[in-house]
TrEMBL record:
Ranges of residues in domain Enolpyruvate transferase: 7-406
EC number of the protein: 2.5.1.7
PTM-bearing positions, type 2-(S-cysteinyl)pyruvic acid O-phosphothioketal: C116
UniProt binding sites for UDP-N-acetyl-alpha-D-glucosamine: R92, D305, I327
One annotated GO biological process: cell wall organization
A Gene Ontology molecular function term of the record: UDP-N-acetylglucosamine 1-carboxyvinyltransferase activity
Provenance organism: Thiovibrio frasassiensis
Active-site residue numbers: C116 (proton donor)
Residue numbers binding phosphoenolpyruvate: K22, N23
Name recorded for this polypeptide: UDP-N-acetylglucosamine 1-carboxyvinyltransferase
Amino acid sequence: MDKIVIEGGYPLHGEIAVSGAKNAALPLMAACLLSGEPITLRNMPDLRDTRTFLTLLESFGVTWQKDGTVLVLDASSITNCEASYEMVKTMRASVLVLGPLLARHGTARVSLPGGCAIGARPINFHLQGLEKLGSKYELAQGYVDAKVEGRLQGGTVCFDIPSVTGTENILMAATLAEGVTIIKNAAREPEIGNLVDLLVGMGARIKGKNSDTLVVEGVKKLHGAEQEVIPDRIEAGTYLLAVGAVGGEATVTQCNPQHLPSLLEKLRGAGLSIEEGKDRIHVARKGPIKSVDIKTMPYPGFPTDLQAQIMALMTLSDGLSVIAETIFENRFMHVAELRRMGADIKVDGHSAIVTGTGRLSGAPVMATDLRASASLVIAALAAEGETHISRVYHLDRGYDDLVGKLTQAGARIRREKE
């Protein structure tokens, strides 16, 4: 097992390029199951999760070719509609195959998903939505067995709270349903807009992109298409926060500033200089970090996937910061590790009260989930001395060559065997 070793205190400079978004790539990959013709995806990131998802698709009979960041998927010959526990236990996004398999093949058997241990994240939204479209399902021995007689039927699906993967699953299923499907209180994340673009390119009829109401007129068949994976806004945000924590001046490139409205507002409030370009964000820290309060919310609110990282920044601030987590109930597991580095953080229910100390000290710490890993990297870059971060396989799930990119920007960071 690998660990990451970071010698803190070296400011970041230059350019840091962002890869394709994990949370966009996975549903785009799942969408290949809706068509018997090839799907070409560009700007694909090289991640543990995308590799795992490829293995899952292979188990269904999907063939693929990859050349650099271009991935071609061919689901013309599906031989299996079961996603086994061994295939999906490490990745919650595996549930995204449920809707496409059901829509095109009328049956799907999918193991209840795993992934980061940051809360229950039930899939009841997915199942209830598919039931509204005419499917039947049973839960037995850790699996969802779903079936539909003939085609799925259009219907109205209203989410109690916006669910990203729930919206994506119902959206994909609805493209091949008979009639019109209306998805109300849909999630509005940019990754969903990326999926809509691919589905429309495949011949789907969808209205309401980037809104909380999606209207899908089902078609009998979808064809092949090409689509570019949008830049990873969470990766971009992580690098911006890293520059804020350790200091320096850098440009995060190949990103979309419009995907990070809430974060950029908070960074400016924290005293950082932020300049936005068409596909880049220039960030500079020229003084102390000011404390800001955070409340995670569905897009366009502050992303829960950046909560841990901005908490690391707030430990270095000049005041008191209250960070409220409203999306996942167990997403403060990084707090104990940040405390090991000298952070002053108190957890009160769904809120963390961070008293900025202005300094952190290197220490041996352990990653507990994907975004917690990134928060520890940010803290270590700014800490005095050396930090050893273990269990970095979490980091590999969502960051493409993080060590290489930070090294190029001037960080003293290396990967080695434990």
